[in-house]
Amino acid sequence: MIELAPEIADYAAVYSAPEPEYLRELSRQTHLYKLMPRMLSGHVQGRLLALFSRLLRPKSIVEIGTYTGYSALCLAEGLANDGTVYTIDVDEENSLFAQTHFDRSPYADKIRRLVGPAIEKLDEIHPPVDMAFIDADKENYVPYYRKLRPKMRSGGLILADNVLWSGKVTDASYTDPETEGLRSFVREVAADEGVFAVLLPIRDGIHTIWMK
């Protein structure tokens, strides 16, 4: 992650909307029981996801990469009354952990888990998709984008996490599959004339991609 000075991060958190208690508890449980809790979206990024969702009022949200469910719950906050979050993860253990927290939230009936390889599970998602969040294996961001893109409605939004990858994407000495995958992804988006995109240097970088 590209970390802010602690006092700046704390200031941003204090003056952002507060985390609901069920998200604070999920964060605590993730830090206690899961490896790599830094994968959690966290307070400020989570509030940003919730803000985008509240602005769009989507009926259909697709998330690639459930982890422990924090971001899915944030995205669910803005759903239309008949809306659904479809969250995909290949790790069944993490997905079941997430479900226990979905069940304790106000959105238990709004979130549907899909367990398996995302490139296959995306075939179960029918258009139109109003909003998507990509936060999974970085080397596959381009295939995920290509699979999602035709399903998105005009005016929809794709968000992609970790596109700065702790700054590695700007350092030519890094040629690992994840870093190269992220570079390929932002180039793919830049070449897509049907979208309007802004790369936000928030936390580890969030690419915001609006469908024209």
Flag low-confidence runs: none
Decide which structural class fits the backbone: alpha/beta
Strand order of the largest sheet: 3-2-1-4-5-7-6
The rounded distance between the terminal residues' Cα atoms is 30 Å
Tags for this model:
212 residues; alpha/beta
How is this structure best summarized?
By secondary structure, the protein is an alpha/beta fold. It has eight helices and seven strands.
Task: Write the SSE topology.
Elements: H1 6-14, H2 21-33, H3 43-56, E1 60-64, H4 70-76, E2 84-89, H5 92-103, E3 111-115, H6 118-121, E4 129-134, H7 141-148, E5 152-161, H8 177-190, E6 195-200, E7 206-211
Parallel strand pairs: 1-2, 1-4, 2-3, 4-5
Antiparallel strand pairs: 5-7, 6-7
Helix pairs in contact: 3-4
Structure overview:
By secondary structure, the protein is an alpha/beta fold. The protein has eight helices and seven strands, in the order H-H-H-E-H-E-H-E-H-E-H-E-H-E-E. It has a seven-stranded mixed beta sheet, with helices on both faces. Helix 4 links the parallel strand 1 (60-64) and strand 2 (84-89). Helix 3 packs parallel to helix 4. The longest helix has 14 residues, at 43-56. The mean pLDDT is 96.
